[in-house]
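Entry 14. Ran structure prediction on the chain below.
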Amino acid sequence: MISVGIDVSKGKSTVCILKPYGEIVCSPFEMQHV
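Output, structure tokens:
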């Protein structure tokens, strides 16, 4: 199973994608809210 973590704040969101046992699929990146 792949897990997607999203931290939402007022001006941006931070996203990270992980496989089981903490293997990183995609390093954390930021998305600006427009």
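Strands lie at 3-8, 12-18, 24-32. Will compare against last week's run tomorrow.
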